[in-house]
Amino acid sequence: MSQYTNQQGIQYNQIMQSNNKQLQLTLQNISECFTSTECRDRLLKIIQYSCLWISWYNYRDKSRFSRFFQIYQSIYDARRLIRLLKSIICIPNIQDLFQNLKKTNKFQQSCLITTNIFYLLFYVIDNVAILSKIQFLKFDYRKVKKYGYPMWLIGLLSALIYYIIKLKQSFKKESELKTLMLNNMTPKEFCQAILQITEERKNYSLNIIRIVGDLIVAVQRNNIPEFLLHTRFNRGLVAFGGLLSSLISFYQFYSKNKKLIQQQK
Length: 265
What we know:
By secondary structure, the chain is mostly helical. It folds into two domains: 1-82 and 234-265, no CATH class; 86-233, no CATH class. Helix content is 87%, strand content 0%. It has nine helices and no strands.
């Protein structure tokens, strides 16, 4: 009886130690996420599009509609200030992609290069626009910001093409693995490879959904529905697209940071 009790005590201590370790990792991840500028931007994006959805939902109540829409616009401007000089990040990415152009699939690399170049242009124009709005620069804010939206749209479309190709390739890779298993692959190696492909496919799928959400906003900002259909998207749809994109973006950032912490441990 005493031996059984001791075993229970040991198991309980092991469970508690495991839970404490997991709690420490979670708290460290949350701490590092919330101190990151990138994470703050993504959290603000969630709040921004939540406010837009609330303003749309309360369109009959002019007071609430106006109040939440003003909060949405203020948070949008705050995010643009947070993103000042973010264009610098794109430059080393573009340099690395050009260096690896001969080593990998040229079309896929070209898609990534196109994405980063147009994101770079978007961020630069967006920086000029927000600095003009706070009267740090003497440009017409409304005119300048319109030049940035097409850059963002092209960058998103290029990224969408890239991830659709990668998703398609993941299915092809899985079918090739099944053939390899019959030849010279152990069941353990096969399971590990399948798990890796599944994780990659999950990331590609999430990126596609995230980009589609951003595309709803980008298409609206470029006035494409108005040009083609003589109408504009419902603000609720735009809010849904932005909120979907921001939630996925935050989840990806949190998951990536969690893996980095676990590897360090």
